[in-house]
Amino acid sequence: MSSDLTDPIIATGLVRNFGDFCAVDGIDLRVAAGEIFGFLGPNGAGKSTIVRMLTTLIRPSAGVATVAGFDVEHEASKVRRVIGVALQDAAIDPLMTGRELLSLQATLHGIRRKPMLERSATLLERVGLTEAADKRVGAYSGGMRRRLDLALALLHEPQVLFLDEPTTGLDPMSRIALWEEVRRLNTELGTTIFLTTQYLEEADKMAGRIAIIDHGKIVREGRSEDLKAAVGSPTLIIGVVPERTPEVLAILEAFGERRPAPESRVAIGLDGGAARVPEVVRVIDDAGISLSHLELNDPSLDDVFAEATGRRLEGAE
């Protein structure tokens, strides 16, 4: 990825402390124009704190960041005019209708009535809320609220869109619909999108580049396929009764390096891949050990996270 001083998101040495707790610890980031950039990590890793700094909601404790060329601390009002933000915990007035909220958002951004009506109609259609536009938001489902929040964030045609865990709590169909809309925005309008998520599949499908954050630090960064390729061998995951686990681990040492495993399982990076699975099974069977579970997985973002942090991402499966 090429980058320069015109990149819409640049952060250098970004730090945020809450008392004695360091939530974000010296983050460096560059996001190119028109990119979907995925920020992946478990709850509490610092994802939302970074979004709040980049969107001027909280000030950095140290470091500098610019969004669309404006300093987030010293030019906050200019940053706010060129970004769209859909936060995980956004508050939407349940007594107003979707159309009324879009009208209010337009007023706040100084958009005149005619273009407001045109943009509102287009966005409501895009997010599938035309028929529900005149219903009170309190009657909306969680997925409908998320889609309305996305429309509100896009009304003023922002240069940069921040989506903070946009699909948390959504059913599978609502999640897919939101993914499709975000992709369309990026493809048709060239909107730069900064997406935080704890869902591996979401990051893998949506983002051109991914950064993985853990305990306030970026532990891996790059294209998804490159990060997975760097892991190397596929992961063999085996389940046995707990009392035989030490024996199985000793056997597996001859087949590859141990990897972090889901609870009640053991795992290795299987040297030689699928061709060696029968050999592994035969050796374990010869030792009189019964397998309750066996799977072989190509390198995944969960493997990347495990290799970088020594543990599996919560809810990765």
Structural commentary:
This protein is of the alpha/beta class and 317 residues long. It has 2 domains: 9-228, P-loop containing nucleotide triphosphate hydrolases (Rossmann fold, 3-Layer(aba) Sandwich); 233-298, Alpha-Beta Plaits (2-Layer Sandwich). It has helices spanning 47-54, 76-82, 98-108, 113-126, 142-154, 172-189, 200-206, 224-231, 245-252, 277-286, 301-309; strands spanning 9-18, 21-31, 36-40, 62-67, 70-71, 83-86, 160-164, 192-197, 209-214, 217-223, 235-239, 258-259, 266-269, 293-297. The chain has a 6-stranded mixed sheet with strand order 6-7-8-3-9-10, sandwiched between helices. The chain has a 4-stranded antiparallel sheet with strand order 2-1-4-5, covered by helices on one side. Strands 12-13-11-14 form a 4-stranded antiparallel sheet. α3 crosses α4 and α8 packs across α11 (301-309). The relative contact order is 0.13. The model has no long low-confidence stretch (mean pLDDT 89).
Structure summary:
This protein is an alpha/beta fold.
Topology:
Blueprint: E1 9-18, E2 21-31, E3 36-40, H1 47-54, E4 62-67, E5 70-71, H2 76-82, E6 83-86, H3 98-108, H4 113-126, H5 142-154, E7 160-164, H6 172-189, E8 192-197, H7 200-206, E9 209-214, E10 217-223, H8 224-231, E11 235-239, H9 245-252, E12 258-259, E13 266-269, H10 277-286, E14 293-297, H11 301-309
Parallel strand pairs: 3-8, 3-9, 6-7, 7-8
Antiparallel strand pairs: 1-2, 1-4, 4-5, 9-10, 11-13, 11-14, 12-13
Helix pairs in contact: 3-4, 8-11
